[in-house]
Amino acid sequence: MLELRKDLFADERDDNLNVVGKGIQRQDMPGHVTGLTRYFDDHAFDGMLHLKVVRSPHASARIRSIDVAAAARAPGVKRVLRAADVPVNKNTLLSLINFGKDDEPSLAVDKVHYVGEPVVAIIAESEAQALAAKALVRIDYEPMPAVFDVEEALKPGAPVVNETYPANYFEYHERFDHQKLRFGDVERAFGSADMVLEHRYQMSPIEHAPTETNGSIAAPEQNGRFVVHSCAQGLFFALGTTAKIVAVESNRLHFIGGTVGGGFGGKVDSLTEPLAVLGAMVTGRPVRFVLDREEEMLYGSPRGAERIYIKDGLMRDGRIVARQIRSYFDAGAYTRLSSYAAIKCTAHLPGPYWIPNVASDVHVAYTNRCPSTAMRGFGITAVDFALEVQMDRLAEAAAMDPMEFRILNAYRDGDMKPHRRKASNTALIECVQVAAGKANWPISEQGKRQSSLTGGGDGERGQIPATVLDARGQIGRPDTRQSGPTQTLPAGTSRIAPSKQPVMEGARDGRATPTQVPRYEAARPTAQPLAPAAYAPPPSPYQPVAGQQPPPYQPPPAPPSPAPSTPTQTQHGAVRFSSVFGTRRR
Fold first, then answer.
1. Rounded to an integer, what distance in angstroms lies between the CA atom of residue 577 and that of residue 581?
2. Is 430 helix (H, G, I), strand (E, B) or coil?
């Protein structure tokens, strides 16, 4: 049985749970263990045809010509599909929520951008006949330069991977080349730190390796409708994507799924459904499109490779005073879900630790690799690994126990996050204490007495610090812009572009408009750089017990910061913010 720690945060939650921690049998378990569960491939149809695709052998090449005449005449072949046969050939998954540009063809048109990209689809009476016809397709390629490293792909003059994004990076809101986070002044903090450590962390692509490979079966029904048996993890995403690509109303598609023989994120991309439905439309017969194991391993979307640089400023007593992160997501040749992963990554930084100065730049780069996709916590898992390895290295540099080091730097309720939100329901300290106890890992009595409910939000921990801006009033790295000197955004304020001003609830539904609205300071270009003020790290919430106490640090008194103004709440409650679209919503 799962052990529930009811003594922790008893006033924060109701532990009278009726499912978690109890031995309740899953509804689908009997079918799984008896072999009676029906997966998509267990549905048989009379006259079912089989679809296979001809894939590119090149990472980057121009298609000079395609000859399918011999394949079309091969025994059992009913139809050969090329790019011109696909009604809406370009798509990207998140276009269903108006995020990103359509950049990936179902079948390649004039170029291929990764090994395994589909070029031609063969529909035949049997799998064997479809495979035999594949060998008869003749495609003349002109190999082109390719790029496989994320940082090389972003350099000027790199081969263009994705013509929709010719600079090889995803464009956020059609103007920004990466996800940016700024909080405080990391460069000034690095200059005041006792130690600065920087390390690079590199992740590899990971194949999901499900027992059941990606696949689907599409069959015509009455009244121009089609039934689709699918193993998709996001059934409504698959339905919407398919309806868009084959250009039919979504109510003409009846998707049946929910039973997935292993997914882990690798079955959200609709790799088979659109072509299977298109095949059923042009032949009038059921069509089965299933990846074989080789295709699944080589061309099914992997977890994207990520490269992460972490630079930390550390004081002798173990406090982290600055963290700078530069991260690159390898999207492969097309976007899929990498753009969303970068948003998740930025929202997660700098981990569960209070750090008064934080800067991050998270890039999505296109390379001539197989497009990457979701996998179990994508956008978070890799950076968490990097952050925690970095924490162990920092603890060693500070000559501290790694458990005590995490307790010292952990968020407490009321702390200000770099995203300008108050931390709440924090529990890292308690998690470390429980984990140490179960592992018989000794921590000091003072460490055992620490709590996530106390000490948070005190002094600087609850304030929004001054943040470095460039001369145009934008948060960013002045070294990457052709602009003048920098200035500082006063503590406690935020800057939002005029086109992104928040829409306060109340005016559109008959309710009164709030009496107060957020006010944002206009940009104030300066004639010369502002003189940097002396950096004053905050006091430690507690001093860990160690073999040798470090000399006490006495920061100079800091001037009081003006309290940020808070807009009046409406009758709806809190105003929420969409990290994807940058707009306010309920």
1. 9
2. helix
3-state secondary structure of 462: helix
What lies within 8 Å, CB to CB, of 206 at 6+ separation is 302, 303, 375
- Is the pLDDT at 139 greater than 70? The verdict is yes
**What SS3 class is residue 184?**
coil
Residue 359, CA distances (Å) to 90, 160, 169, 346, 377 in order: 36, 29, 20, 10, 22
Contacting residues for 294 by C-beta, under 8 A, at least 6 apart: none
Tokens standing for residue 466: 């001054």
Q: What is the 3-state secondary structure (H, E, C) of 115-155?
A: CCCEEEEEEECCHHHHHHHHCCCEEEEEECCCCCCHHHHCC
Q: How far apart are CA 239 and CA 577, in angstroms?
A: 28
Alpha carbons 231 and 217: distance in angstroms, whole number: 10
φ, ψ for residue 196, nearest 5 deg: -130, 125
Phi and psi, residue 498, nearest 5°? -55, -35
pTM reported for the whole predicted model: 0.81
Amino acid at 260: V
Whole-angstrom distance, CA of residue 259 vs CA of residue 257: 6
Q: Which residue(s) pair with 140 in the sheet?
A: 65
Provide CB contacts within 8 A for 283, sequence distance 6+: 49, 78, 79, 123
Contacting residues for 240 by C-beta, under 8 A, at least 6 apart? 96, 250
Residue pointed to by tokens 């919430």: 541
The pair of structure tokens assigned to 53 is 């695709």
Q: Write out pLDDT tens, residues 209-267.
A: 999 999 999 999 999 999 999 999 999 999 999 999 999 999 999 999 989 999 999 99
If phi > 0 it is left, if psi is from -120 to 50 it is alpha, else beta; for residue 439 that is alpha
Which tokens hold the place of 73?
A: 């005449």
CA distance 532 to 581: 35
Distance CA 470, CA 487 (A): 6
The pLDDT tens digits of the residues spanning 457-511 come to 999 999 999 887 654 555 544 444 343 444 555 666 554 343 333 333 333 333 3
- Is-contact 337 374, C-beta < 8 A? yes
Distance CA 474, CA 565 (A): 21
Query: What is the pairing mode between strands 358-366 and 320-332?
Result: parallel
Instruction: Measure the CA–CA gap between 359 and 202, rounded to whole angstroms.
Output: 20
Phi, psi angles (nearest 5°) of residue 175: -150, -20
Query: Does the pLDDT of residue 296 top 90, yes or no?
Result: yes
Q: Are 235 and 204 in contact (CB under 8 A)?
A: no
With tokens 């799924």, the residue in question is: 257
Quote the CA–CA distance of 520 and 311 in Å, as a whole number.
31
Q: Which helix (H) or strand (E) holds 449?
A: helix 445-449
**531 is written with which tokens?**
């003189």
Helix (H) or strand (E) holding 201: strand 195-202
